[in-house]
Amino acid sequence: MPADSAPHPVAVFDSGLGGLTVLRALRGRLPLEDYFYFADTRFLPYGDRPEAFLKERGVLIAEALARRGAKALVIACNTATAAAAEAIRAASALPIVALEPGVKPAAALTRSGVIGVLATTRTLHSERFQRLVGNHANHVRVVGQACPGLAEAIETEGPQGPAVAALLDAFVEPLAAAGADVVVLGCTHYPWVAEAIARRMPPGVTLLDTGEAVARQLERLLAAAGLLGGGQGGLTVATSGAPLAVTATVDRLFGAKMHVEHWEP
Ligand code: DGL
Q1: pLDDT tens track for 16-29
Q2: CATH second-level architecture of 10-99+212-262?
Q3: Dihedral through CA 77, CA 81, CA 82, CA 85, nearest 10?
Q4: Which atom in ligand 1 lies closest to the alpha carbon of residue 76?
């Protein structure tokens, strides 16, 4: 256990640094918890990996986080949730918050009757996503747009980079052409490029991400388990990849210099 982290942090994990957009919402709502953020950078992108791999990896990570003293787990990754949330819940005794694309609120909000969902290939092809649409968005048209390469490009060159811009041109245009008036950011990396997405859509389009809802759900779960509070607002960031490279990316995305340590689940 590193000296700067409390014994029982809330663990948050993603394939990379997309989950920092969720962490920001968690810390905004529950600033006195301690957090352990794990970026599984060695295996980024999750979006192009087989479901069986993500299940095995997700269970391994959850078990290692529990051994490390985590009091709860936030799966800050839509792809890992879609592929592995059920397996992780079955294998772990920790309170778990999993997130999924905001299809339900989007279907309630749309006036044009068309919602766009930007997500990874794995998320859009998952049974869980099909169920989500079937249960909550049957009455609207759902235009799912897979965005291969986007999460890596955001990490590699930052939100303003030329490859990011070219990918966004290609991925956002079909949603505008279809007449979507609500766009679901169905991958935790995409809030980093929310403004660039909004610029490519007609004015008045609503962008939805799930950070706030996840924070409220974590608060409810911790309260119900009698685990709320008791921390000091500490944060440890760890990666399965190269800490120096991740430090530079955290700095670029988060706007803060942070120490990043190596951790192997
Ligand atoms: N941030 C992840 C998500 O929310 C996926 C990025 C990746 O493909 O690794 O889906």
Answers
A1: 999 999 999 999 99
A2: 3-Layer(aba) Sandwich (3.40)
A3: 170
A4: 4
